Amino acid sequence: MHLPYLCVCMCFHLSIFLIYSGSEEEFDVERKARALDIEKAQQEEEAEAELQMNIQERHDDFMLPTPEELEESSQKPPNLPAIFQRIKDIVRVLSDFKALRQEGVPRKDYVTQLAQDLSTYFGYNDFFVEMILQMFPAAEALEFFEANETPRPVVLRTNTLKARRRDLAGVLINRGVNLDPLGKWSKVCSSVQTACSSTICSSNTRTFVKVGLVVYESQVPVGATPEYMAGHYMLQSASSFLPVMALAPQEKETVVDIAAAPGGKTTYLAALMKNTGIIFANEFKEKRMKSLSANLHRMGVTNTIVCNYDGRELPKVLGTNRVDRVLLDAPCSGTGVVSKDQSVKVSKSDVDIQNCATLQKELILAAIDMVDAFSKTGGYIVYSTCSITVAENEAVIDYALRKRNVKVVPCGLEFGRPGFIRFREKRFHTSLAETRRFYPHAHNLDGFFVAKLKKLNNDKALASDKGNSEDVDSVITIEPSLPELNTASNSPTDEKSVQELEDMIKSPSENVSTKKKKFFRKDLKNLPSKEEISKLREDKREALRKESKRKLSSDFTSSHVEAINAGEAKKKKHKKE
Amino acid sequence: MRPLDEQETTAVFEKLHKFVGSNLKHLIERPAVEGATAGSAPLRYCFRLHKNRVFYASEALVKKATNISREKLVGVGTCIGKFTKSGKFHLLASSLDLLASHAKSKIWLKPSSEMSFLYGNHVLKSGLARITDNVQQNQGVVIFSMADIPLGFGVAAKSTQECRKLDPTAIAAYHQSDVGEYLRMEDDL
């Protein structure tokens, strides 16, 4: 940079000098200086061009490995850094596919190669990798896998029956434990506690802030201090706080915890209820009963009845429509807690997930049956799992919505992602957006799902059968009204012939059309074919067009039509009243 | 689950009397908070026997627990102790909260010997920080840390006067149960 400047300076000086000396030499030196300048400029240009080319080359450089290369690398032990580099490259390509793709290579090939590499690098089976790639975009999937390699921070919950968080924190710090109060987890999971303003947090999260402590490191074993043994705190994962916060049991209520062992959530329930009311702590596996009892005694919980039933039998034992609240922390496949148990990476398959889902569906129905919808303070069920699969989470809640008179209500947890309303080919009820999902890479919590349901009615039979048919089968309910419309425009004498005609057209579906409007899900098998449905729709549109034409022709202004419509609406209202 | 019969009740009350003395009346006649629905009269606590274990729970809790079959019921309220095969009654560590709040005789341990006691060792004179006055020999004592956290219970080896004259290595109180058992012997509780 300085060179041309120096040259110019030099030649300026020289030229000044040369002016006095002679004109010939001046041209000579000037020419030389100019040549140097040109050379310099050329060099710079070339450097620029090379830089550009390098950048471009790097972009275009990533090619999917050919089958021969793959063969070769499968013979040797896997080259992990190379595989990781390839993973990152594919993620980059997929993020801007149009610009960065290789010509002629479909997206599917990239995704397949990515799945293979992820499976090799992180050690998951194909089912798991595919499931994650279906749920997240490629970059986020990579974050998820990386987050599962490191453990989540150790968290302890102060037992408010015996101690206060501030005092406990002081005592533990004196013993040599490095800890912080548990605030709302920020995305970057900083260790600094974020202030919890009352406008943002619901009362549930305020208790969350007051009892949690994060442990960073400790000189003494945190699970063996005298305070632990005296029941002043409980070692839990932060995600275990969430379902209890969502349930928010009040004092003097009756609460059932269907899958209670080892007792972290049960003891939290008791602490929130201040040892009043009754908690039924049920656990299916006999081997875990000891730890449940021990934890309850250690934490000084006195309002609990501990039993060892299969959750599906509980309504028979405890009675239906009796209890104020139910917490169902369902047994699941554990796909959200890979960082705790690495064996989940390879041991899960589609069959396992389906089995879990079936059990969960039965349990949630049992849970709903136990609750008294008209309880003065309650009527809530909280369903939670430590899994991130859609089949165990949203599908189960959707099943519950279809089978019982419940609705999804906000959980009171304002962080976390809303649950899926649609996922691949499945469509769920829109209220499922109130459920919450938590991920290790996004919230620094174990993978978790929480949903809160309110029971509307104590009947098991769905009161909303009519509602169902209106939502789902609106096409079919048009049929009975069609003949009415047609008869309105035609003369009464043609009524029969028109109906006969329509009956002829719709003969296969006639049974369905002439049946009463009430529908059950089983009757979905007898739906009319697509052509018939479209034909019906067209007929309806025609009829409506004729209606509107007739109205417009009889009355000149549109406002007049509106007035008529308003009048009709009013008449209808009066009729109802 | 059934109420205790005469013999069993005497055994339990005798043991409790060792630790809480005349507070026993208060223990039994406490108004119970658990299980009460809002607005109803306060309930009492009662003792029930289930699979050789004695449970201390409020009456409302006990009533609700009658639905549950004998094989499937694991516990109600707090388990305070169990009967051995030969019919003797032993108090368990889980009764500590109850005992500690009604205890007559207390011992406070120095911080240095807390851990030793929690491992199951007896209390030596060197670990003794404070002891309530007028403790008789072989009277039940509840053992606390200096921060008033109940650590366990045991039997006084000597009366208070004699304790003052003991050697540092002599035993001041025999260990019967401590809170460390939750970690050491979780299965036995």
From TrEMBL, chain A:
Record Gene3D superfamilies: Sun protein, domain 3, Vaccinia Virus protein VP39
Signal peptide: 1-23
Residues that bind S-adenosyl-L-methionine: 259-265, 283, 310, 329
Renumbered residue ranges of the record's region Disordered: 483-516, 530-577
Annotated Gene Ontology cellular component terms: nucleolus
Residue ranges with Basic and acidic residues bias: 493-505, 530-553
Family statement: Belongs to the class I-like SAM-binding methyltransferase superfamily. RsmB/NOP family.
Protein name: SAM-dependent MTase RsmB/NOP-type domain-containing protein
UniProt source species: Ceratopteris richardii (Triangle waterfern)
Automatic annotation (TrEMBL), chain B:
Short name of one Pfam family: pre-PUA_NIP7
Cell compartment(s), UniProt: Nucleus, Nucleolus
Gene Ontology cellular component annotations, sorted alphabetically: nucleolus
Keyword Transport found: no
InterPro entries, per the entry: NIP7_N, Nip7_N_euk, PUA, PUA-like_sf, PUA_sf, Ribosomal_synth_fac_NIP7, UPF0113_PUA
Keyword Transport in annotation: no
Gene Ontology biological process terms from the UniProt entry: ribosome assembly
Main location, first listed in the record: nucleus
PANTHER family: CYCLIN-DEPENDENT KINASES REGULATORY SUBUNIT/60S RIBOSOME SUBUNIT BIOGENESIS PROTEIN NIP7
Task of the protein: Required for proper 27S pre-rRNA processing and 60S ribosome subunit assembly.
Family note: Belongs to the NIP7 family.
Protein name stated in the entry: 60S ribosome subunit biogenesis protein NIP7 homolog
Source organism of the structure: Ceratopteris richardii
